[in-house]
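Lecture 7 notes. Example A: sequence first, then its structure tokens.
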Amino acid sequence: MNARSDKLFEKRKLGKLKSDFTPKAALQEPVKKILIVCEDSVTEPAYFKCLAGDLAINIEVHGEECDSPPSAVYKYAKEKFNQSVKAGDEYDHVYCVFDKDTHTSYQPALDAIANQPKKFKGKIRAIHSVPCFEIWILLHFVYTTSHFADADALCKEIRNHLPDYKKINRDVFLNIKDKLPDAIKNAQKLMQENEKTGTDNPATRIHELVEILQEVARSRKHF
């Protein structure tokens, strides 16, 4: 494969990281029921539960129920969506939050969600990070395009700003929520850089879900 082909391949791969929805586009109608399924059983569920509480909105957040591989997250999301349909209380949106890390099912999970069966109506979305969720935490403090080998490397960098930070963390949102606007701005800038350069480490789409939830909070004030 020549250099030109390599570059084309990288851009195609990165295409799966590009935003395919916006807060307003995703909320054309009042949202009644949202499910977030996380690969992590502690830090990520706690973060989104605290965020929802801060926004005064009700959402379902599941973590420990689905194990950790991205494929398991998507499988669990499908099962919960099907159950909601059968119960006559269908989820409006289901978000699968998972990391690349060293998961062999990362790309297959992205592909499966991108090509999900019509019966799911495109309501199941991937919210993925590379190498892991911690890049979102770091972006609250600094903008970076530095490559990170794994979660340990990211946690070490985060501790330059949050000395007591650990991978398992139940209260990180409370410690950084005042920096949320900076994190969103930095994540948007990083996504633009990823698209321009064809790289995906680091990368995250957590900011898109955060913006969705913020829009839900704003829209519910009008009903």
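Example B, a different protein, same format:
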Amino acid sequence: MNLTCHRAKNLSYAIIDDFFTEKELEAVTQEVKDLQRFFLPASKTRTAKESEGERLKTGKGVFLDNLYVNNRTASAILQANRKVFSPEVVEYAQNFDVIFKEISQSNSDHTLLNCYISGQEYRPHADTSRLSVVTFLREGDFSGGEFFFPEQEEVIPCIHNRAVLFPGCVTHAALPIKGQGRRISLAHFINLKGDDRH
């Protein structure tokens, strides 16, 4: 893992490149392929809406915790993404900004696997989680798909095996992709029990 923290206007966020090890990435990639049959339209994944009720996401997805009820150890993704709770990440991030202390205080989390093809996006929205981690996986050849914080005018390239950690309340977006590939993202929502939102 290569962890760096950044500040853009009033936002602190972290980028973790090479988030998964080579072995983890192989297992995660295989699991993504195996789970394609479970992908649901945006209307079935509690996607954010505009005030008029229109969905902001055009991709598909599935909540992994719904598939692996009481058996999270059966999922390579749910096991590998737990490294965000490691002392290496927690200490580095909270030394940069106290907001990241929320990681070590968390006792509840959920993961949404998303898939976007050409022309699809997730327009600006905010999560209801305390913290969010979005990990990018690229399949095939495409352009676009950047991660975007519109209020801070901050664009983060969609690099394979890159994770972005940020406060869930911050407005963010997945820009449209163009090409024949797929942008896979793992949205990891970090919360406290009793405040279990996503």
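Note on Example B: The first strand starts at residue 2 and ends at 8. The radius of gyration is 16 Å.
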